[in-house]
Design goal:
22% of the residues lie in helices and 39% in strands. By secondary structure, the protein is of the alpha+beta class.
């Protein structure tokens, strides 16, 4: 049908590379969500894969995101897609929970 079951919001930013330390164009995954009853079907993976492809087409050399350290399913998905935990951001979320800053190199083959 025509039901929206998930989304991915991302943007291109200019700033210092987490990977190379130079000034670069990087992608930022701002938000991704899939309705709970549709999870486990590869929808999040496909949304992320498409976003990574498009960010690369726009010239991004790397992509980063923030994720709750308690969100194991999301962290596993991001690792499967090639993201690596870069650092912990203390009390990133309003409720005081920490976040992982995760980064993926788009220059790797």
């Amino acid at each position: 049908g025509n039901t929206i079951v998930g989304y991915n919001m991302c943007r291109i930013e200019f700033g210092i590379s987490y990977i190379r330390g130079n000034f670069t164009k990087k992608g930022h995954i701002i938000s991704i969500a899939v309705l709970s009853e549709y999870r486990g079907r590869g929808i999040g993976y496909n949304l992320m894969s498409e976003a990574l492809k498009r960010l690369k087409e726009c010239g991004a050399t790397e992509v980063y995101l923030e994720v709750r350290i308690s969100n194991t399913p999301a962290i596993e998905l991001y690792k499967k897609l090639g993201f690596k935990a870069y650092k912990i951001i203390k009390e990133y979320y309003r409720d005081g929970e920490d976040a992982y800053l995760m980064v993926k190199d788009l220059m790797e083959k």
